[in-house]
Amino acid sequence: MADQMTDQILRMSGITKTFPGVRALQDVTLSVRRGEIHAICGENGAGKSTLMKVLSGVHPHGDYEGEVVFDGARCEFGGIRDSERAGIVIIHQELALSPQLSIAENIFLGNERSRHGIIDWNRTNHEAAELMRRVGLRENPVTPVADIGVGKQQLVEIAKALSKRVRLLILDEPTAALNDEDSAHLLDLLRGLREEGITCVIISHKLNEVTAVADSVTVIRDGRTIETLDMAGGHVTEDRIIAGMVGRALDNRFPPHEPSIGEEALRIEDWTVHSPTQPGRKVVDGASLTLRRGEIVGLAGLMGAGRTELAMSVFGRAYGTDISGRIFKDGRPVRIRTVQDAIEHGLAYATEDRKRYGLNLIDDIRRNVSAAGLAGLARRGWVDEREEYRVAEEYRRSMNIKAPGVSSVVGKLSGGNQQKVVLSKWILTEPDVLILDEPTRGIDVGAKYEIYTIINRLADQGRAILVISSELPELLGLCDRIYTLCEGRVTGEVPRREATQERLMHLMTKGQE
Amino acid sequence: MSSITPAEVAAGTGAGAGDPGEPRRPGRVSLGGLSLNLRSSGIYIAFALIIALFSVLTDGALLQPQNISNIIVQNSYVLILAIGMILIIIAGHIDLSVGSVVAVTGALAAVLMVDMGLPWPAALAVTLVAGGLVGAWQGFWIAYFGIPAFIVTLAGMLLFRALTLTVLGNQGIGPFPDAVRTLANGFTDGYLGNVGLGPLGGADLFSLLVGLLAVAGMVVAQWRTRRSRAGYGQAVDPVPLFALKMAAGAALILFLVVQLARFKNLPWVLVLLAALVLGYSLLAGRTVFGRRIYAIGGNLHAAVMSGVKVKQVVFWIFVNMGVLSAVAGVIFAGRLNQAGPTAGGSFELDAIAAAFIGGAAVQGGVGKVAGAITGGLIMAVINNGMSLIGSPSERVMLVKGAVLLAAVAFDVWTKRRAGTAR
């Protein structure tokens, strides 16, 4: 369809990119119309990022086969500076900002407003203020970037791109780290840029956003272009895109589950946590929750509502200061002062940030799986390596971790497989209560289904599960009961049959009305 | 029921950017069908090449019995320090104070044994405890107070040198009791007499038997490890490569022992060193405590969130470093037969260099005791070989600096090729 449009700003054709031993892209075609928002969808590892690296010159001309035509001219970018000069700017998922520098300094980083090598601060801050107005960022240009939220940092990146007179803006998972409000603002901003004639290419896993904002969608699977969908008319659904991404119809994104709910496993009462960095600020404020065996409980909240902080503070006070409240395990009050205490009392917490808090990326599957439950595999301080191998191998099979063996280094696994290693690590500690913080973040559709199946299995084994997630459909599809958290307070408790996205969203934003 | 099963999903994922079923093998070379991991084996190959180089350059003088004995005895204290240092570096820390701790513990031993006339075993015990207390002092500030080890041990470097000077004034204390000198400088006796080795002449039977025992122990232990791993379907070296490695190890040990047996039997420091290497290799590789050290260095936050008692582990590896520094301090003083105010100068740098040449990663989380020892021996051979051919000391320093830089550059390079550097 896009091929019929005459005014193409970008045409990539026959792109093939090979890494040693792996063909990442094979004869990929991408056509982008001038002034549209074009989404690229595909599972992790499908080749989306590689394609964007070809476009932005990270993989220089000569490193790939095929042709890139931008605005009618053949491009042979030797590096990112060449593509930026042509008006193509890429904003990566991990923001490239310098936290201690001001917003204005970051906007003009590498592109300083100067005269004879001396920075012209008036011009810098004035022009920065102008760009910030365009992206809707209401902050002082001299504020350090570290002092503003992730959503606003994203806007700084876009302002930086605008300062380079961008004509084609590429955003790689722009809303992955944003809450719904910031995401909505960002999508509005993209629509505004479209009005100004700036073409956007976004890579996103969030298909609801894609269907909401994109004019066309190109689906990539296994390094090949599968199809380009014209979104005009609104008849292309999320399920239609997913079908293209996974190569088959996906009737149900969640495995069916009949819960058998038992005794109370964990009760938290009047839990209050103060921020370690901002004295006096309550991050969690008098929260009370109950988890029962066999039950999957959801915890919904916008970013900054205190979900992770609540979970980590319960898990051996791994977060926060001046913590008060009571914890009851199997109906008896317990004192949990350290992570070790928490593990001994049968708690497990699988982090939202597995690369930072969950895994030793340079070590292998075996030693990551045993990291938390090592004491159980040791006698008098000596690790029983035979047993360790046996256990790790067992988890590799039962969790379907795709790796040649348990000696594979965890850092090289895909996100879904890494998450399975994290889950294996905690299941090995034989917990009664599992807190799963964003268990499917950054994981592709197929692997998500597997993770949901594992979660259901864990509940069926009589464990209590608390799932923290930013994706409301995930909570609705998975959980038997959902708590909502807003500004550190529990604002609602909704059973599955009564829960809707609208109702949860209403409860999650209660404190802000 | 859903229309897809996890197994079908599995078939759809994983392909693309990198199929985990067939990982690339960067940093591996093939030698006649044998595949070798350069990153972990490179250090041993480099060691062999350096020995071969200097054997040629020195017309074989390098491998003469007396010279081998000299290399071991002259470098024993740095090797002992390297054992403690590798644990600290694996945990992601550093210790700059070990040279000064060597000096202060040596001085304490001298005061106790020479000035106060305490029996040597008691004095040795007190010195080792003092070394442990020094380590506890530094470990407290690092682990529990949260000051970077670089700063704490830089301060320690000054503090303990100052303490040494306060105790000793400007002069040395000696001579040491015979027992201490024997430990530092002496050799095992010919308990079982000599045997003839044909053209090689007479050699000490006891030393040879110890050597054979060591070879047998190594082969049996390695074979059992290999078998148990293979039993769980883990990748192990193919038999020819395994045999080659064992043969190389056996040849090295037997050559070393034969040469030593032809000279003056086994140096006591070699016996001590062998025990320490064996003990600490097991500690690092097979115990929960050792695993914790790797976990902390590999990802501190993940270790905390996995229930590792990080502060305790860090505290104890610094205590351990203090004790090993005291061992090195006593041996160094015993070897010179005097505790001097400048003892241990720049030992910390030698120990750190040994660890990094031996394959430790700058970011922590990677390293082996055997690697650190090999790294230390590489520097020892360079030192010794270059002095045998009469190179001036500035050139020795130049070469050692280049080797250190090259070793770490190689490590970074292989990591980048493996695509894990982030």
Automatic annotation (TrEMBL), chain A:
CDD domains: ABC_Carb_Monos_I, ABC_Carb_Monos_II
Gene3D superfamilies: P-loop containing nucleotide triphosphate hydrolases
Xref: InterPro entries: AAA+_ATPase, ABC_carbohydrate_import_ATPase, ABC_transporter-like_ATP-bd, ABC_transporter-like_CS, L-arabinose_ABC_transporter, P-loop_NTPase
GO molecular function: ATP binding
Sorted UniProt keywords: ATP-binding, Cell membrane, Membrane, Nucleotide-binding, Repeat, Sugar transport, Translocase, Transport
Domain of life: Bacteria
Entry keyword annotation includes Transport: yes
Domain (ABC transporter): residue spans on this chain: 10-247, 266-512
Record-linked PANTHER family: CARBOHYDRATE TRANSPORT ATP-BINDING PROTEIN MG119-RELATED, XYLOSE IMPORT ATP-BINDING PROTEIN XYLG
Name of the protein in question: Xylose ABC transporter ATP-binding protein
Record organism: Streptosporangium pseudovulgare
Gene this protein is translated from: xylG
TrEMBL record, chain B:
Membrane topology category: Multi-pass membrane protein
Top-level taxon: Bacteria
Keywords, sorted A to Z: Cell inner membrane, Cell membrane, Membrane, Sugar transport, Transmembrane, Transmembrane helix, Transport
Membrane-spanning intervals of the chain: 43-63, 75-94, 106-134, 141-160, 200-221, 242-260, 266-283, 313-333, 345-362
Task of the protein: Part of the binding-protein-dependent transport system for D-xylose. Probably responsible for the translocation of the substrate across the membrane.
Entry protein name: Xylose transport system permease protein XylH
Coarse class of the protein's main subcellular location: membrane
InterPro entries: ABC_transp_permease
Compartments, record wording: Cell membrane
A Pfam family this chain is assigned to: BPD_transp_2
